[in-house]
Amino acid sequence: MRVSEALPMITTQHRHLIWDWNGTLLDDAWLCIRTMNRMLARRNLPDLTAQRYQEIFGFPVIDYYRQLPFDEQRDPFAEVSTEFILGYEDARAECRLRDDALAALQRAAEMGLTQTVISSSKQPYLEAAVEPFGIRHLFAGLYGLDNHHAAGKTAVARRWMAQQSVDPAAALLIGDTLHDLEVAQAIGVDCVLIFSGHQNIQRLQGHGARVIDSLGQLFG
Question: What does pTM read for this prediction?
Answer without folding.
Answer: 0.93
